[in-house]
Amino acid sequence: MARAHWGCCPWLVLLCACAWGHPKPADLGGQDVRNCSTNPPYLPVTVVNTTVSLSALRQQMHTQNLSAYIIPDTDAHMNEYIGQHDERRAWITGFTGSAGTAVVTMKKAAVWTDSRYWTQAERQMDCNWELHKEVGTTPIVTWLLTEIPAGGCVGFDPFLLSIGMVFPQSLNLSMPTRVTLSW
Ligand SMILES: *[C@@H]1O[C@H](CO)[C@@H](O)[C@H](O)[C@H]1NC(C)=O
Ligand SMILES: *[C@@H]1O[C@H](CO)[C@@H](O)[C@H](O)[C@H]1NC(C)=O
Ligand SMILES: *[C@@H]1O[C@H](CO)[C@@H](O)[C@H](O)[C@H]1NC(C)=O
Ligand SMILES: *[C@@H]1O[C@H](CO)[C@@H](O)[C@H](O)[C@H]1NC(C)=O
Questions:
Q1: Environment class of residue 77 by beta-carbon count within 10 Å: exposed (0-12), middle (13-18) or buried (19+)?
Q2: Does a structural domain hold residue 102?
Q3: How far, in Å, from the CA of 138 to the mean position of ligand 4?
Q4: Is the per-residue pLDDT at 183 higher than 70?
Q5: Which domain holds residue 151?
Q6: What are the Creatinase N-terminal domain coordinates in residue numbering (predicted)?
Q7: Residue 60 C-alpha to ligand 3 middle, in angstroms?
Q8: How high is the pLDDT of residue 17?
């Protein structure tokens, strides 16, 4: 009897320690969202661990000599609501909202999406990803210009971006930026 009693006690102590040590969920309108400022980060169970897929993508980028890679939310017909087969952005980020662009550099990974999806993104993305609460191409291009070295190449699937997205009118093309398209 005494033996059995001692046998289960360490487990109880361990369970209690785990419960206390676990960071509390961040309160974002009562939603269980990630908190990357705690140590270790707090991640809800809805989060997808993207560490392995990101490192595989970066390996490919290295092979192709790319400083950044853009993963849009569209399919080849510029649809917003797309077939599972085309859900590249959802696969690499874990974030399944219908709108949102991902950009991966060798050091950072970021998603831009609109206010409909901010909470969902905080519930689905792990701390490999920054969430940028902005829409449109200009914030992405501005970010890219600060993140990649001069002359660095940016890769994307040419079937998934329209000319309007690659050369937005809001981007001052007389800036000393060179866009080279190659695939
Ligand atoms: C994340 O945790 C820190 C430290 O506990 C806290 O100050 C911050 O408000 C939390 N962030 C969110 C989004 O809840
Ligand atoms: C994510 O997966 C990697 C590789 O399996 C692992 O090392 C890491 O600890 C995981 N991260 C989290 C937060 O679970
Ligand atoms: C890789 O790209 C850089 C520009 O970022 C260029 O200077 C270099 O020659 C390229 N290397 C190869 C192997 O293509
Ligand atoms: C675009 O950039 C060029 C060179 O930096 C500058 O002279 C010009 O005024 C800019 N045009 C606009 C509309 O911002």
A1: exposed
A2: yes
A3: 15
A4: no
A5: 51-160
A6: 55-163
A7: 15
A8: 39
* Strand duo 31-33 + 68-71: pairing: unpaired
CA-to-CA distance for 60 and 12, rounded, in angstroms? 46
Average pLDDT over residues 156-170: 72
Q: Which residues contact 81 (CB under 8 A, 6 or more apart)?
A: 98
What was the pLDDT predicted at 12?
A: 38
Instruction: Domain count for the chain, please give it.
Output: 1
Q: Is 13 inside any structural domain?
A: no
The answer, yes or no, to whether the previous bond of 25 is cis (omega within 30 of 0) is no
Best residue among 63, 65, 148 to mutate for probing ligand 3's pocket (most ligand atoms within 8 Å of CB) is 65
Please report whether residue 66 resides in a domain: yes
Q: What is the CATH number of the domain that holds 139?
A: 3.40.350.10
Residue 109 lies inside a defined structural domain of this protein: yes
